[in-house]
Specification:
Family (chains A, B): Belongs to the class-II aminoacyl-tRNA synthetase family.
Main location (chains A, B): cytoplasm
Shape of chain A: globular
Subunit structure (chains A, B): Homodimer.
Number of helices of chain A: 18
Distance between the termini of chain A: 47 Å
Pfam families (chains A, B): HGTP_anticodon, tRNA-synt_His
Helix content of chain A: 40-55%
Oligomer: homodimer
Subcellular location (chains A, B): Cytoplasm
Largest sheet of chain A: 8 strands, mixed
């Protein structure tokens, strides 16, 4: 191979410094998941295609990475049946593929590929719950932090391989779960030093209520998208857009209060309950929202802010109750860094009915970017050695290894420069690696069983016995 | 989907208890890697096919999982060129595939698949080093703990998805690295409580020396395989097998000392240096082995035993110096639980010459099985809550949540049962989850701001104020 090697587009190598920072975030999320009673599971990177296909819509199906059978689809087959229409494609190479050919190709694909890389953690989790239902004690609080893969067009902040960090509870409809999930968000972001995030909350049933009131559920997305622009284009602008989208003036007037939807959460809930009084489902949503917001407010949040946002329509297709979304601190220009909600029928797709679930997700890559931009990564994140022992040759290196062995047994990260090259080169290595101390054992130190400890930042150097050295490096 | 869902053969779901145990091993390996100065990197799950194909021999190529282009190979193409010979396959469906057809199919495969799941961590590491050489300070001590995928036939202990845990140094030929890697093995297994492992060591150059002495390098594998059976079939049996394999009696007589190859490491090295005195390369191997074994012995190991094993021929194709293999304690019937060695030209395949590397690997799945069999997993491994707060209804649950919030802020893992169902059901949940305590807040406790703490193992129950509760659960 002559040219420099590369990696597939949309994927990333992570350097030691990057892994350390990612691990810091993951470890913080993980330890708080566990503090809140969630338990880890892991599922295979690839699932049977049956498990994944058709669960994410047509667009999703297209973005699922498919794996050729048995590592190499033809090796294990004596014969391969290829549809004739594929051969004809070759002859008419300039023509676009027809629908019939696409169907044939689809069939062909499923013959040569029976496995696919997971697209998210939710469907594999649903599959896990159904498959292992007899071993699971419900309600089941699980967390899962694993990579997922999507054949999306890569762009800034969007990758073909990325981690998802999910916590879900299945098997209970209790709204205390929503209360705890809000607290969990608050606890994690506080622990990461990321103060000032906004936890936006809404409820699918409130959106249904609004749809009822405006008289057209199919216009709901248009309605919320327009309403979300209130800050930018003003009440008139929003109404203009709504009318253009086919929402009647009469319908708009019925939800007039939403155009001046401000105040405390309690005040907003009060307005909503007036607005949606005619909708049974809408009122159920108000009631749920009220319980969650009231409990969260009474118990108090450490640094995050709770906000009721009726334009929040995230995951409208599957959420049935609460909807969450996390906005980063306002000083950072970045989309949501987390989200979640309640879905009343998580496992129905695999034949297990009446299994309500609620969960949240943390957006690792975006959280990383926000913490980086705000300079919030602690200096201690990098997993670097505390000291480098300079190597002056076999005898000195042996004495160094004796000390190194004892220090490591005390849990102190130290290392020996492997070759007896020029000291300048060895210290340069320490510097580039961010190792703060060098330990020098020369002839004099060998004779007196001492160690010269050099602070590589200040240049200061002291001579110590082993105990002194250990104390300094501890 | 009517039938119960399943996962692809050779893959696994991991339950909370299993994840906790796996994490315990991984965490132990990871923290010791870092203590020894290794830094983490991560590479993408899939690489360009070019990067992987041809690096693992023909068998390896076959076992590499290939990914269809862009998630769906045909969607992004207006035309697909299929070789005519594939169409003919259909007509002769009963016939075996011909060599020509296989070549055509190979070409076809590389057209519809340009990416593949990584097969090990070594080739991606070599690719990483070459790609990022200008950012790396050499010698580069990296560790990597990530899954790999192989389309092997699954069997007991062999999976299609499994984790590798590798530590390697590139950019230095210093034998101190080998000394440290032996110590690292000893430190990790000691930390895991796995005492009595044997670290077998050999050297590729000694094997070359033996090949020189027996006069046929192509017979080396046959020779070592036969010699390895000495314990089982005795000297005569081994010699008979060697002769059957075409090794001459004269050649065998030249290495006669290997048939009574016992004693201390120093004695074995002494015998080898006599046996291989005519081979320059063999003597270089003896010298290297002597340095490593001498330093390791002088510095001392905590619980592992070092053993010189001249039949150790693992990875003969790529190792050029030291070869390591770890045998589990003799009480367990299990193959090697780790291995490694030195390879003088790791990155040559990607165009970067003269980059010597040495590394070791831990076999996570087998280590897991050994620790399980010996009952060495600590009881504290499972990440379960310390206490379950029983739910008696909204008011009581709110009081519980107030305490829970404070306890979590102290880092104590506690949870609320989400629904106010029968107490028996709630306690059964705690029991099944392995939660040791229940906290009960009833009317009485509410009035007196106290908590009834029930030990679920002994059944004992005490009434405490908040401070007492926190103390008990800390």
């Amino acid at each position: 191979m002559a040219s420099k090697p590369s990696i597939p587009k949309g994927t990333r190598d992570f350097s030691p410094a990057e892994v350390a920072k990612r691990q810091y975030i993951i470890q913080t999320i993980k330890s708080n998941f566990e503090k809140f009673g969630f338990q880890p599971i892991e599922t295979p990177s690839f699932e049977n295609s049956d498990t994944l296909m058709g669960k994410y819509g047509e667009e999703g199906d297209r973005l699922i990475f498919k794996i050729l059978n048995s590592g190499n689809f033809f090796y294990n087959r004596n014969k391969i049946e290829l549809p004739e229409s594929l051969a004809s494609l070759q002859q008419n190479s300039a023509e676009k593929i027809t629908l019939e050919q696409r169907i044939e190709l689809n069939k062909f694909t499923s013959k040569i590929s029976e496995k696919a890389l997971r697209y998210d953690l939710t469907v594999p989790f649903a599959r896990y719950v159904v498959q292992h239902q007899s071993e699971i004690e419900f309600p089941f609080k699980r967390y899962q932090i694993q990579p997922v893969w999507r054949a999306d067009n890569p762009q800034k902040g969007r990758f073909r391989e990325f981690f998802q960090c999910d916590a879900d509870v299945v098997g209970s409809k209790s709204l205390w779960q929503e209360v705890e999930l809000v607290q969990l968000y608050d606890t994690v972001f506080t622990a990461l030093g990321l103060t000032g995030v906004t936890i936006k909350i809404n409820n699918r049933k409130i959106l249904s209520g609004i749809a009822e009131v405006i008289g057209a559920s199919e216009k709901l997305i248009d309605f919320t998208v327009a309403l979300d622009k209130l800050d930018k284009i003003g009440e008139d602008g929003v109404k203009k857009e709504m009318i253009e989208k086919g929402i009647s003036e009469e319908a708009i007037s019925k939800v007039q209060p939403l155009f001046s939807f401000t105040g405390t959460i309690a005040e907003k809930i009060n307005q909503l309950s007036q607005l949606l009084s005619a909708s049974v489902e809408g009122m159920k949503g108000v009631e749920e929202l009220q319980f969650i917001c009231e409990k969260v407010t009474q118990l108090g949040l450490a640094t995050a802010q709770l906000d009721l946002d009726v334009t929040l329509a995230r995951g409208l297709n599957y959420y049935t109750g609460a909807i969450f979304e996390i906005a980063p601190p306002k000083t950072v220009a970045m989309g949501s860094i987390g989200g979640g909600g309640r879905y009343d029928d998580l496992t129905g797709i695999f034949g297990l009915k009446n299994m309500s679930g609620v969960g949240i997700s943390f957006g690792l890559d975006r959280i990383y970017l926000v913490i980086e931009e705000l300079g919030l990564f602690p200096d201690t994140v990098a997993a670097t050695s505390k000291a480098l022992f300079v190597n002056y040759g076999e005898t000195e290196a042996f004495a160094a290894m004796q000390a190194i062995q004892k220090l490591r047994a005390e849990g102190i990260k130290v290392e020996l420069y492997p070759d007896a090259v020029k000291m300048g080169k060895q210290l340069q290595y320490a510097d580039k690696r961010g190792i703060p101390f060098a330990v020098i054992i020369g002839t004099q130190e060998l004779e007196s069983s001492t160690f010269a400890l050099k602070n590589l930042v200040t240049g200061e150097q002291v001579v110590l016995d082993y105990e002194g050295l250990q104390q300094q490096l501890q």
